[in-house]
Specification:
GO terms for molecular function: actin filament binding; microfilament motor activity. The structure is a single chain. The chain is an all-alpha fold. Among the domains are: 36 residues; 102 residues. The protein is built from five helices and no strands. The chain is rod-shaped. The protein starts with a helix and ends with a helix. 0% of the residues are buried.
Length: 198
């Protein structure tokens, strides 16, 4: 639509005006292309184009520090959960030993006389309580194991993310060193050319 309007406008002008308008347009286009070619081959513009993505490296450092902090927190939480799990296992082993002891006492009392029946009933009640506690502790142990697995997976994922970030940082540092060496070489070349001209 815009081209059609321009064409209609230009067709309505005298021939000399059309030539002047066309020449002015060609001049503007040539000037823009010449400016772009000069800018494209300018060393500082090339350097800017390469360094610009590296400016975001500080954000990567912040993310890396946050991941390290999260990893430390997960390790501390994992240590606490591991200690709690060991304590629970110790208590469970103790309760099992007590249960075994109650069973042995019960058998011994059964072999005794009839007067020990009342005590045997008490021991049975104690056994039932111990079994309830044992079931509760077994459930706690299962929960702790599930939590342990979850924390272990989270720790592995955090370590994997940490390795990826370290690799990215290494690549960025290598790129910066390479660009620094290229810049020094170009500076040396420029100085050599300046000395040659003098």
């Amino acid at each position: 639509m815009l081209a059609k309007c321009r064409f209609s406008y230009i067709c309505g002008l005298p021939f000399d005006s059309c030539v002047i308008v066309s020449f002015a347009g060609v001049t503007i286009i040539q000037r823009n292309v010449r400016s772009w070619c000069t800018l494209r081959n300018w060393s500082w513009f090339k350097l800017y184009g390469r360094v610009k993505p590296l400016i975001q490296g500080s954000k990567k450092d912040e993310e890396f520090e946050a991941l390290e902090q999260k990893c430390k927190e997960l390790e501390e939480k994992f240590s606490r959960e591991e200690k709690l799990r060991k304590d629970t296992e110790t208590e469970l082993a103790k309760l099992r030993a007590e249960k075994q002891e109650v069973f042995l006492q019960l058998e011994q009392e059964r072999d005794n006389n009839a007067e020990s029946e009342e005590r045997a009933a008490k021991l049975l009640a104690q056994k039932s309580d111990f079994e309830k506690q044992l079931v509760g502790l077994a459930e706690q142990l299962n929960e702790q194991e599930d939590r342990y697995d979850t924390l272990l997976k989270a720790k592995r994922k955090a370590e994997s993310d940490n390795d990826v970030l370290k690799k990215n940082i290494g690549e960025l540092e290598n790129m910066i060193r390479k660009q620094e060496s290229e810049k020094q070489a170009k500076d040396h070349q420029i100085r050599s050319l300046q000395v040659g001209f003098v």
